[in-house]
Amino acid sequence: MNITPIKRALISVSDKTDIVNFAKNLIELGVEIISTGGTSQLLREAQLPHRQVEEVTGLSEMLDGRVKTLHPKIHGGILGRRDHHAKEAKQHQINWIDLVIVNFYPFDEVLKQAITNWDDAIEYIDIGGPTMVRAAAKNFSWVGVVVDPSDYSSLISEMRTHHGLLFDTRKKLAEKAFGTTSAYDAMIHRYFLSSALPNDNCQSHQLLSLNKVMTLRYGENPHQKACAYQIDQKKSSVLSAKQYQGKPLSYNNLLDMDAALRCISEFDTPACVIVKHANPCGVAISDNITDAYKQAYSADSLSAFGGVVALNQPCTKEIASEVISIFMEGVIAPSYSSDALALFRTKPNLRILETSVNVTSAWEMKFINNGVLVQEKDNQIIQESDLKIVTDFTPTSTDISNMLFAWRVLKHVKSNAILIAKNNQTIGIGGGQVSRVDAVDIALRKSGERLADCILASDAFFPFRDSIDRLANKGIRAIIQPGGSVRDDEVIRACNEHGIAMVLTGIRCFRH
Q: What is the 3-state secondary structure (H, E, C) of 253-317?
């Protein structure tokens, strides 16, 4: 039917936003209301005429409330095809239900409250609600289903204009309903995984519940449409950050800020990461956050132009004064001083975000055509005891400290990656190259005249000695790399010839 007249509606909602007003409008349109316990109480208090579900079924709710609406007189009324099942429905005294208004027990509150008692948690899993919603959505040819209070007003308007609900409206409502039940099941699935199988996320089925956060102005390029979706509303991320000011976040902003948060989460000491095109271009740690920012910026001030700044300590007034003197897309930090926020307000387009900088996800996903790749996040932390010295020359304690710092940053640079550092500051990064020797050349060029007493980190082994020969007499004191090449001996020999110390980690840190 193009238009379904609405004669009878069933209301059973946990989120009671505007439900009394909606029910009142339905009654004014001549709709008979059937309702369940808590919603019925609310309608009764508002003195709105309705029938309780048990009056329809002839049975009181049972099994501690687990069974209320699971009855042929409810589901037959929802699922029946008006042109095929009218005689059978009459035989069983089933009256059609034309509109189902349902939302679910708030299982997300279980996740927010971190309820650990299994028996308590499962009582929040709604059975009757999703069953009615799925039934109504399946039978959208005849039935309207409403799961979102924001739809109430437009539906009343349509019913007044057309004396019922249009087919296209019912179809759109069904689409939203199936999306809601899917998200609800995925949320419960995540709870089962986190509660019972915390160390094994490679299950035979993975359900992703994506909650739309915003429509983006465009994607990577202006001709591409884009939206942002959140998987887990509990976890801190750039999508849950508080934005104090600035233009709306773009697709590229979100990628850069996420990359910055991932890198900054490597450090407990005051640290700053500046990211451009999803790659760190300047990273530093220091005794205080202001110095960390200055060193990160000076690491590659040319590339920092138009980048995003991430801090793992509160943003100071001094940092704010430095940032507003140049062009940056945004800043993300755990908090800001009032003086810093006042300075940032002089640059109203600058995006200022606040969120925890601790990235706690154990797993990460990447989408490929018609599929998803899932892997453990690279949480490997290299310690000094993990390093194997393989050259005649031994790195100093300062070299070791710089190498461990560099390795933490290197994990966040696109492969092939080479990073040169000293004094806990990056000074040259060559990333995203198809040739390792090209990455070396870029890192050397970016380091410029600052190469004295530096260390170099490589995310994978050197396949040939040509990269080492490039480093001769350039000021590189020591190299950290995984090792494992068939030409390791050749590479080590080259280091000895050039007076460079080398240590092996035995672990690669590619990032594609």
A: HHHHHHHHHHHHCCCCCCEEEEEECCEEEEEEECCCHHHHHHHHHHHCHHHHCCCEEEECCCECH
Ranges 159-163, 196-200, 255-259: which has the least confidence:
196-200
168 found inside a domain: yes
Residues sharing a CB contact under 8 Å with residue 71, sequence separation 6 or more, in sequence order? 53, 56, 57, 59
CATH code where residue 445 lies: 3.40.140.20
> Is 149 part of any domain?
yes
Q: Per the structure block, which two tokens stand in for 93?
A: 């005294």
Asked whether residue 167 falls in the same domain as residue 222, the answer is no
Same domain? For 174 and 239 the reply is: no
Q: Which of 71, 277, 317, 474 is catalytic?
A: 277
Q: Confirm whether 277 is a catalytic residue.
A: yes
Range of the domain at 412: 384-504
Torsion of Cα atoms, 244 then 246 then 249 then 252, to 10°: -120
Tens digits of per-residue pLDDT, 367-418? 888 888 888 888 889 999 999 999 999 999 999 999 999 999 999 999 999 9
7, 16, 85, 138: the active-site residue:
138
Which residue's structure tokens are 């990447």? Answer: 366
Query: Known catalytic residue: 138?
Result: yes
Q: What is the dihedral of CA 44, 46, 48, 52, to 10 degrees?
A: -20
What's the domain count of the chain?
A: 3
**Per-residue pLDDT, 14:** 84
Q: Measure the CA angle with vertex 419, ends 449 and 292; round to 5°.
A: 75
Same domain, 227 and 190: no
